[in-house]
Amino acid sequence: MSALWFGLFLLGHTLLELSRHFKPFHFLGNVLLELLSHLRLYHFLGHALLELLSHLRLCHFLGHALLYLLSYLRIYHFLGH
């Protein structure tokens, strides 16, 4: 079951990355991440931070790299967001 949620989580981030070119993917990625927010502590706040970084175009790539690293390590996942 956790593999399914992790797959959906990765799909959501993939859709967000595609949003740089296609706005509908941005909406779908946000919806999927919001649905997953109920399963991960502070996911909403972390997603808001990623959105801010994305709009400011500051450290967006590094933020995603840190998110994935902490996700794999399962160490306070919300800090990566």
Helicity, as a percent range: over 70%
H/E order of the elements?
HHHHH
Main sheet record: none
- The rough form would be described as globular
Q: Total domains, how many?
A: 1
Question: Which residues form runs of ≥5 with pLDDT under 50?
Answer: none
SS-based class: mainly alpha
Whole-angstrom Rg: 12 Å
Number of strand segments: 0
Mean pLDDT: 61
Number of helices: 5
- Please report the distance between the alpha carbons of the first and last residues: 22 Å
Our estimate of the beta-strand percent is: under 5%
Signal peptide: 1-19
Protein name: Secreted protein
Keywords: Signal
Q: Could you write a compact summary of the structure shown?
A:
This protein has 81 residues and is mainly alpha-helical. Helices cover 78% and strands 0% of the residues. The radius of gyration is 12 Å and the shape is globular.
What does this structure look like?
The chain is mostly helical and 81 residues long. It has one domain (2-80). The chain has helices spanning 2-18, 23-36, 43-56, 60-73, 77-80. The model has no long low-confidence stretch (mean pLDDT 61).
Please specify the SSE layout and strand pairing.
Blueprint: H1 2-18, H2 23-36, H3 43-56, H4 60-73, H5 77-80
Helix pairs in contact: 1-2
Keywords:
81 residues; mainly alpha; 5 helices; globular
